[in-house]
Structure prediction request, 680 residues.
Amino acid sequence: MEKDDASAKVTLREVLADAMARDKTIVGGKVDGKVRDVHTPFLRTPTTVIEPIRSSDAFGLRVLRHSAAHVMAEAVQRIFPGTKVTIGPATDAGFYYDFAKPSGTFTEDDLAKIEAAMVEIIGEKRSFRRTVVSRDEAQSLFAGMSESYKTQIIDSIPQGEEISLYHTGEGSAWVDVCEGPHVPTTASIGAVKLISVAGAYWRGDERNAMLQRIYGTAFPSQKALEAHMKLIAEAKERDHRKLGKELELFMFHEYAPAMPFFLPRGAFVYNGLQSFVRDLYTTHGYEEVVTPQIFDKKLFETSGHLPNYRENMYLPVTAEHLDELRLALREGVVPESEGAESYRTADQARDKVVIQKLQDLERLGQKPMNCPSHCLIFGHRNRSYRELPWRVADFGRLHRYERGGVVHGLARVRSFCQDDAHIFCTQEQVKRETSSFLHLFYGVYAAFQFKKIDIKLATRPEKRIGTDEQWDVAEKALADALTEANLPFEITPGEGAFYGPKLEFHIEDALKRSWQLGTLQLDYMMPDRFELDFTGPDGAKHRPVMLHRAILGSLERFFAIYLEHCGGAFPAWLAPEQAVIITVGEGQNEYAQKVVAHLKSKGLRARADLSHEKLGSKKRDARNLRVPYILAVGDREAQEGKVAPWSRDTKADLGAMPLEQFTELLVAEAMVPRIIPKDA
Prediction:
């Protein structure tokens, strides 16, 4: 890290020339904390702090992958002339690029050809080159290449913003309109692999053209790429949709799109997650409420959801339905599907009924969040400062409209439940409540064996409510709480909720993938909008602060991620079945049933497989269900009152032991984890 001592426009290629000559892994840098590539000029001042970024760093890897996306686009257009390009960003796991191919879809053979062309381009060690052009120049360039999607992208760049192009090589090299960042040369990209092809709507809108999205990944070395590909193969085996079917946990049906059905085994786990959190509420000072699912739209107008979140709200009546009723009213014909006898009365009475129905339907909406209803509860009577902090929890079902292109198994659904809670407190209590929440949050994730957690502080978005002064105070309060807790965090500008900044907790799973799960949001706006107050020690009315918090977040999403994290091998305390007793023959059936009865009497979950299958087949079936213990019983075990356990976690036979000894072992393992409150 170094400080510059002059004021001028320079590039990192100039500033880090010596370091890059010695270390070929440098692909960019941080300039006063902001990631830049080696091509983009910046103002150098005496206080400017520069830190090199290497291709193995998290930021460097994204720069490398974004560059790989450009190389892939060039390779596609080289092999398939006439293909139009759109956007190609880096992702946490690699990169993608969306294409409009003149005809046909990309095949596996096509991916192999594209990948080979990419390797060739990388081997040419061509430099990336950045130029800045006017809007007219950019439009003229891409219009001349018939790149209609690029001209739309240029149109969407706000007036006054710089328009930069990146060229791969010199002269008439491949070019893209892009803000970067990019690696110094194609050689910096290292190893690449194309993964799959999927459909994607232009700009993510199903009303637009369907494009083809090619996914790929890139790493600085072949060794790192191969390690990643092993994780991808493991991820396919652990895909929660695959495991959900194999373990009979959940299902979907076209009659309820993107709304899951939990089968008995899955419902047990789902309820177990909910019970685990509910029990924590008792010890951590939360009170639970039950609230309606459908509200008058006035509630969402007051909360700010209707003007700021409408596109995600799942309303019980569609615009098409309303149009149908309006048309029926105009034409004097009511659809038979409405079926009400009152519609067949005199015109005036019929019209009155239809108008009332329209009005009722138009003013109702299903809740996408619990916070507005909790504000109603807080405000339904006078409150005293002695009641604060008031922690209110709600497991109510929520409905949000997710576009068909983004729903994904349990990970992205339209009907779900959160371990949702809101804390109403004074300004002075914010730091303590944030600290208590962090303690609880980390305890919960330790119980589920998640070890790496990254925190992001998401600040004010462009579309928001409240004043800048309120946002300043809210963002500082969360940052101070993290600093005091000695927890490192990253700031993500513009990613906050429309009503307040938030802490996002990104969890790394067993396959080294990062998922955003829990959240804590600090909100001064909603108490203002609902005019909430409490009586302070001075006898005057004061406005409470509202903390929105979730630990697991959506239970459906957590279920999906945790299922893949543990590969379906739920810990004994959460497993639908903790033990399966398998018999050598029919002669042990009576004893097997006694073992089941004994284990159940101790509060354990067990069953016996008394089928006519062979012992090996029974054991294989139980293993496939990831049951923690399989207890084999033969004549000797039956005579001596023993069992012969096989452990799923150690993948070993534990040897014959008295039934009581095994029971004690399983009872200890099946205990639900406890998290002691921070102030206890």
Q: What stands out?
A: The mean pLDDT is 89.
